[in-house]
Amino acid sequence: xxxxxxxxxxxxxxxxxxxxxxxxxxxxxxxxxxxxxxxxxxxxxxxxxxxxxxxxxxxxxxxxxxxxxxxxxxxxxxxxxxxxxxxxxxxxxxxxxxxxxxxxxxxxxxxxxxxxxxxxxxxxxxxxxxxxxxxxxxxxxx
Amino acid sequence: xxxxxxxxxxxxxxxxxxxxxxxxxxxxxxxxxxxxxxxxxxxxxxxxxxxxxxxxxxxxxxxxxxxxxxxxxxxxxxxxxxxxxxxxxxxxxxxxxxxxxxxxxxxxxxxxxxxxxxxxxxxxxxxxxxxxxxxxxxxxxxxxxxxxxxxxxxxxxxxxxxxxxxxxxxxxxxxx
Lengths: 142, 176
Known about the structure:
The complex is a heterodimer.
Chain A: E1 5-12, H1 16-34, E2 46-53, E3 64-68, E4 73-79, H2 82-87, H3 90-108, H4 119-133
Parallel strand pairs in A: 1-2, 2-4
Antiparallel strand pairs in A: 3-4
Chain B: H1 3-7, H2 22-44, E1 47-49, E2 55-57, H3 59-72, E3 75-82, E4 86-89, E5 98-101, E6 106-113, H4 120-126, E7 129-137, H5 139-152, H6 157-160
Antiparallel strand pairs in B: 1-2, 3-6, 3-7, 4-5
């Protein structure tokens, strides 16, 4: 991984500009600048989060949440609701991405046996970071 | 014992070679038999007789064929774009193995079908790239679109502005 926190996307062309370059970089930069995985323990050195935003006909890309004990890395692929993203603005999409990131960690981290990693504190800090950035406010998509 | 008695002391009888226990040989035969049966079954499980007594491919094999045809109809042509300004590997540069790309510029075109091994996201976690799907369809249409994109890449504005325009995208190692 090129950084401890990697955020990217598998996107359909018509909505790529909502998720792709501005928003993935915003999330990635905030996580790398404000959080350090090492303070939560030695069990995790990298998290790659790939958003999938493609129409329902796409059956190629699947969700996953996998932990490599050897590399101490999490690899995550999660779908965003395509129809919602299609109608959302760039800012609304960013909020959607932040919420998806947090919920995914909250639901799936407890299911992985990651030794020496304080996942509770980590998830709390991610939430606090997103709230500070103003990305957790509920946005009503028109 | 003195030297004389040592000289004429009877030699130890020659050791008979140790015979392999009978049990080991029987086990070996049993394993060979099992493997032979399995091999025989494997050799025949892709063919079967229909109700007319004619040979046709087995139901299992036909199912595999249909799955393959379905996957070939679920293809996509994609482009990998630079996520940030920076240096990226270049396989089509004449004098360098890397190239500076600006965010949003093309690194590579490709085609994938459902079921291909390997997660595309794994590429994304090691390189600062975005995966953008440009076309969904059967594999033939996607390969055609990919070829057109690769061969017409030289005339893209992002390439024309370079001191040394590339013949194909930096991440595409060969023409198709």
